[in-house]
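User: Design a sequence. Structure:
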């Protein structure tokens, strides 16, 4: 009658499964093929394998495909910024040097430049 009222819980109670409220079942009662006594199994330190058998994993752990990308960004971004700043500094140095030379040439070109050689050509034309 308990099985009809409580469903699965009633069946488990009727079988005498420990841990459920109600009266325990008679000694030696089994549920779903489990032995009634203490569990017989491998020793706790053996890892569940018989003696002389070694566990060899058949499948390796998957690698994260984004790890090399992250490393490349971590190295590439700062080095790219540093290289850009160094190249910019060199370009600015060259531009300043060219500007100085151009200024000196402009200052040197001011004034009268007619010499004796070109006076006759300029007058005759």
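Assistant: Done.
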């Amino acid at each position: 009658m308990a099985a009809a009222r409580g469903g699965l819980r009633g069946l488990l109670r009727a079988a005498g499964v420990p841990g459920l409220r109600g009266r325990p079942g008679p000694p030696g009662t089994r549920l779903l093929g489990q032995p009634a006594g203490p569990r017989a199994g491998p020793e706790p330190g053996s890892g569940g394998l018989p003696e002389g058998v070694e566990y060899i994993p058949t499948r390796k752990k998957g690698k994260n495909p984004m790890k090399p990308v992250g490393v490349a960004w971590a190295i590439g971004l700062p080095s790219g910024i540093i290289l850009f700043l160094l190249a910019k500094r060199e370009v600015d140095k060259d531009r300043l040097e060219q500007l100085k030379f151009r200024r000196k040439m402009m200052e040197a070109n001011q004034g009268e430049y007619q010499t004796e050689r070109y006076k006759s050509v300029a007058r005759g034309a």
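Helices lie at 2-6, 8-15, 67-108, 116-124. Residues 2 and 10 are 5 Å apart (CA to CA).
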